[in-house]
Design brief:
Layout: H1 5-16, E1 19-27, E2 40-46, E3 49-53, H2 62-68, E4 73-75, H3 78-86, E5 95-97, H4 98-105, H5 112-120, H6 140-151, H7 153-166, H8 170-182, H9 205-225, H10 229-232, H11 235-244, H12 249-254, H13 267-279, H14 300-303, H15 305-325, H16 329-332, H17 335-343, H18 351-361, H19 365-376
């Protein structure tokens, strides 16, 4: 267990003296905290052992970053952990993602426990995966769970790599791992309040304004107190309050569907937000499509039947090829890229033209070789 900068320097030296790739994992407090920071970082290397690093209060991760730059990182579902590791200045130079590799192999279940059981014959207890890892001190049972999660990753990496090579998919995997490693974070939504669960039931501009003001009031409190927004008041409470349209703070307090740990202790905050929504002249209109974004494909059949027909045919050939390759269709080619192609086919619909367009959209070379020829068949009269 590493809790100080001096201990981390010593641990980094021990890890540097080990052998082979680093198994890396993090534990966060999703659903408990507003931030997505890591509250525990686990690192294992053969010949060095397992190190559980408590980043809370640490200031200098440079020694660990330098050590970890010396070899490949092994993570399971790397896209979940890389952002919180990057916040600490920890960025891999090379990456092997055992979850993504398992998807390319077509394994039916790709969670860490399932893959470890299938490929290594070892059952992992997953009792603490949804725990509040901001808890201090961390219980011994949680630490044991965290250590086991990372100590098997190098062995699992070798097992996955062996199967990928046997299936002729190791190059596919290398390209996918490289793409995950450098993938930029998703841009923040211009109007994140519109993503509120159940918010699509809010129709009038006034209802939308109340929804927006309640969402921002909750987000401000959640950010300042580092508490997950849904723990203050859940999305359903915002929807219920807007739908009830209370005429006073007392009516809001009497609303049984308005729940959450802060639903009453912060009642004045919520009522002020509702009042702002009731009185503002800044009334939201319908959700605007982002520049360059496609219209929702769910409405194509009625509004854009030719694009809908192309999408149906393109999906069919992708699904058939994915079955031949023994992998999920979404790993063979991203559904968003298929929709782009259906919406606006390139002028050149030959396999070469399709490959050029898919490459512009971000498809990897291995994907182009497999899917461009079959997608081009859809555009043949």
């Amino acid at each position: 267990m590493i809790t100080t900068d001096s201990e981390l320097r010593a641990a980094s030296e021990l890890l540097a003296a080990g052998d082979g790739p680093f198994g890396v994992d993090t534990e966060r407090a999703s659903g408990f905290k507003y931030s997505n920071r890591a509250y525990l970082v686990q690192v294992f290397r053969r010949g060095a052992g397992t190190f559980l690093i408590d980043p809370v209060g640490m200031t200098d991760f440079a020694p660990l970053a330098e050590t970890l730059a010396g070899d490949e990182w092994v993570l399971h579902a790397a896209d979940q952990d890389l952002p919180s590791l990057a916040e600490l200045g920890l960025v891999p130079a090379r990456l092997f993602d055992t979850e993504l590799g398992s998807r390319l192999l077509g394994l039916e279940r790709v969670g860490l426990g399932a893959v470890t059981a299938e490929l290594l014959g070892i059952e992992l207890a997953k009792a603490h995966s949804a725990s509040d890892w901001s808890t201090r001190p961390l219980p011994e049972a949680w630490l044991e769970y965290a250590a086991l999660d990372v100590a098997l990753l190098p062995d699992l990496r070798d097992a996955v790599a062996t199967r990928l090579e046997a299936a002729g998919k190791l190059e596919f995997a290398d390209q996918e791992f490289a793409a995950v490693r450098v993938r930029p974070p998703k841009p923040k939504a211009a109007e994140p309040w519109r993503k509120l669960t159940g918010g699509n039931r809010m129709r009038s501009p006034r209802q939308l304004a109340m929804t927006r003001e309640l969402w921002h009031a909750r987000d401000e409190l959640a950010r300042s107190s580092d508490i997950a927004p849904g723990r203050l008041i859940p999305d359903a409470s915002i929807v219920a309050a807007v739908g009830a349209n209370p005429r006073s703070a007392g009516e809001l307090a009497a609303l049984k569907t308005f729940r959450g740990r802060a639903s009453r202790s912060e009642l004045d905050r919520w009522w002020r937000a509702i009042l702002r929504g009731k009185t503002t002249d800044d009334l939201p209109g319908p959700k605007q499509r982002e520049p360059g974004a496609l219209p929702s494909h769910r409405g194509w059949a009625q509004r854009h039947p030719e694009a809908a027909d192309r999408l149906t045919e393109l999906r069919a050939v992708v699904t058939a090829e994915a079955e031949r390759q023994h992998m999920p269709p979404e790993n063979l080619i991203a559904p968003a890229l298929v929709r782009e192609l259906a919406w606006q086919p390139p002028a050149d619909t030959s396999p070469e033209g399709i490959a050029i367009r898919l490459a512009e959209l971000g498809a990897r070379p291995w994907q182009l070789g497999l899917v461009a020829p079959i997608l081009a068949t859809v555009f043949v009269d």
